[in-house]
Amino acid sequence: MLNWLNHFSPNYCSQKAQSICLLGRSIRPEQVGFLQGRLGLLIGLLLTGLLLIGTLPIGFCASDTVQAAELSDIRDRGYLIVGVKENLRPLGFRDPQTQELQGFEIDIARQLAAELLADPTALELQPLLNQDRLKALLTDQVDLIVARMSITPARLRVVDFSPPYYIDGTALIARDPALQQLSDLQPARVAVLNGSDTIATVRSLLPALSLRGVETYAEAETLLESGQVDAFAADVTVLTGWVQQNPAYHLLPTLLSAEALAVAMPKGLQFDTLRQPVNQAIERWRVDGWLRQRIRTWGLPRAGLPGFVE
After folding, report:
1. Which of 52, 84, 238, 262 has an alpha carbon 20 to 30 Å from 208's alpha carbon atom?
2. pLDDT for 6
3. Per-residue 3-state assignment (H helix, E strand, C coil) for the chain
């Protein structure tokens, strides 16, 4: 994995000299390999540490204590604290009339409270911004995160994930009824958010498309309404909410990428008693149809069900 360590081999320095001066002291040639091995190990540990620090969220300092509640602590407290989204229909959003949180991920959070505490109401939902999700978990502000968090190698260094509960990915929406398949878009003008991973995905898989960058979803909607672009590419969970609120639009059925959404949990052997029932619950819901039913209820594409077969 750390191939750069190969550079710190006994051949890195010449061993032809009779002695080498290190910090003002003379050492024998046979000591060179030993010292270089120790140097390589030290540098390896240092760089690995820097890589891990680089995965922590902005604002999380090395002096902060990484801590989280174990299942016994949660049960003593009497309720589960889950980080969620509050502005992302249909995953997590507020009912316009009651302002109560609802959505697919809110249902998952309530069901986890039922699994862990035998009471779906033994739950505190804490809305989080994307940039605050990891820090909230690492600093014990929440017990779990169910907030459209995808599994990535960088995140796996600092937290653990459950089995996926939904497969998100890049999709396209259009207003023109004539655009029903990806083949209908060749060629076409497609809006994408500036700086998003969607740009590379679309360019790689649909190189004939003409891309136009936008700063916001509202700007993309304006371009679609005025006919300046033919479609908009973004994550299917986000676009599903768009279509639900704007029925004049429709989703094209093909995903261009796949990102597994999962429950984020604290890392460490002491948290096994929390992770195991969460993992078992997610897998059981997939098998017994509960996830499928919730996906259908909230209008998400059924192809997002992990292991879905047409």
Report:
1. 238
2. 36
3. CCHHHHHCCHHHCCCCCCCEEECCEEECHHHHHHHHHHHHHHHHHHHHHHHHHHCCCCCCCCCCCCECCCHHHHHHHCCEEEEECCEECCCEEECCCCCCEECHHHHHHHHHHHHHHCCCCCEEEEECCHHHHHHHHHECCCCEECCCCECCHHHHCCEEECCCCEEECEEEEECCCCCCCHHHHCCCEEEEECCCCHHHHHHHHCCCCEEEEECCHHHHHHHHHHCCCCEEEEEHHHHHHHHHHCCCCEECCCCCCCEEECCEEECCHHHHHHHHHHHHHHHHHHHHCHHHHHHHHCCCCHHHCCCCCC
Contact 72, 241 (CB under 8 A): no
Nearest to 123 by CA among 78, 180, 160, 60: 78
pLDDT of residue 26: 43
End-to-end CA distance of the chain: 38
**Full set of structural domains in the chain with CATH:** 3-54 (no CATH), 71-167+260-304 (3.40.190.10), 170-251 (3.40.190.10)
The pLDDT value given to residue 307: 83
Q: Residue 88 is which amino acid? A: L
129 token code pair? 């911004």
Please identify every stretch of the chain with a pLDDT value under 50, giving residue numbers as ranges: 1-36, 38-55, 58-66
Q: Rounded to two decimals, what is the model's pTM?
A: 0.78
Cβ pair 101, 123 in contact under 8 A: no
pLDDT digits (tens, 9 = 90+) for 120-130: 999 999 999 99
* pLDDT for 187: 87
pLDDT at residue 36, rounded to an integer = 47
Beta-carbon contacts of 182 under 8 Å, excluding residues fewer than 6 positions away, are: 172, 206, 252, 254
